[in-house]
Amino acid sequence: MRYVFGPVPSRRLGRSLGINNIPPKNCSYSCVYCQVGRTSNITLERRSFYPWKEIVEEVVNAVKTLGEEKIDYITFVPDGEPTLDAFLGKEIGEIKRRTNKPVAVLTNSSLLFEEEVRNDLFEADLVSVKVDAATEKVYRRINRPHSKLSLDRVLDGIREFSKSYKGGMITETMLVKDINDKEDEIKQISSFIAGLKTYKAYIAVPTRPPAEGFVRKAGEESVLRAYEMFSELMGREKVELLIGYEGADFSIIGNPVESLLSITSVHPMRIDYACELLQKVGLNPEKVLEGLVNEGKIAILEYGEHKFIIKKISYHY
Ligand code: SF4
């Protein structure tokens, strides 16, 4: 397989069959946390990178071989920016015509100010847009964009897309310590996202080795603060954490402690609710929570008037 990989399990997309439609590494950004490394070709030029019909053929064959029931989403998630592919719209349209699977695109959103790019993405069933910054200075530090890009233009493009898009839109915000995790920045990011027609906002920390050695994951305090600030504007059900807990499965039955860990890796939980939950199944909440803190599995933090439990963020990549 040249262009297709997986399916890989994804919390956002279930079993996702990945498409790599951009060779490494062509991107409009060179994010400090990028897991593919620094961008060798920072570009805004849309063009053909591979024969688009070959990509479609390979996807259709992979779906046939694997069986449609094994795949939840077909996802454009390349080693670069997928919208740089001038044939993206054609590929999405053709894949949708020839399979019965929804198509998702994970984009850095930098080209959404172009009508042509928005039109291509209108074809997709789900689009994830990146919003890591709300001020130009932070934007330049974290995403290191092409010199012709400006944050205002990018945010306008996202707004414009959000107004007319009929599919499901989600956002992803990667929090990097001392770069974009300050209260002011988060406040502005959350109010921008709350103004979009998005059904879920994900708050992430880098979980794979980053392009730059100085990158550190935002700590639990910043992540909790971001979660609460987003939730105040959007409602808790619309905000989720992606902080690197692979086994997040809410349906763990019979093991309340694992279940608690799994929930708190996605939604920080008020400590009084957690105690209630543990008490209900006959456990001693103080003992269990103390044990989890000592084992380095959870952190207990205060935010506003309450104490919360959040899954401890591992500092190893
Ligand atoms: S936008 Fe994505 S591919 Fe491009 S540099 Fe950032 S993380 Fe890497």
Automatic annotation (TrEMBL):
It comes from the Archaea. Residues 9-246 form the Radical SAM core domain. Keywords: 4Fe-4S, Iron, Iron-sulfur, Metal-binding, S-adenosyl-L-methionine. Pfam families: Radical_SAM. Its cofactor is [4Fe-4S] cluster. PROSITE patterns: RADICAL_SAM. GO terms for molecular function: 4 iron, 4 sulfur cluster binding; catalytic activity; metal ion binding. The keyword S-adenosyl-L-methionine applies. The keyword 4Fe-4S applies. CDD domains: Radical_SAM. This is Radical SAM protein. It comes from Candidatus Methanodesulfokora washburnensis.
